[in-house]
Amino acid sequence: RVLVLDKHGEATLVALMKRALEKSEDYFGKKVSADDAALAFIAAVSGGDARMTLNTLEAAALKSDHIDTLI
Fold first, then answer.
1. Is the pTM of this model over 0.85?
2. Which one-letter DSSP state was computed for residue 33?
3. What is the distance of C-alpha 51 from the center of its chain?
């Protein structure tokens, strides 16, 4: 058997990141916010992969309390 995983759409990935940011103190140990443009960019470059999306969000969150397109 082969398990085929479909790519997530950008809207789904942005919603996933917004949910993660709502609990940013639990996940990252601090309150983190992000611009909509930054979330859209992360979703676009993640290729539909939710794990990559969340890993990228985490890396940006560890670098700054506010994620924007300049990071």
1. yes
2. E
3. 9
Residues 7, 49 contacting (CB under 8 angstroms): yes
Q: What is the DSSP letter of 29?
A: S
> Nearest to residue 36, comparing CAs of 5, 13, 14?
14
How far is it, in rounded angstroms, from Cα 26 to Cα 19? Answer: 12
| pLDDT greater than 60 at residue 71 | no
52's tokens: 């990559």
Residue 53, burial from CB neighbour count under 10 angstroms (0-12, 13-18, 19+): buried
Residue 70 has pLDDT above 70, yes or no: no
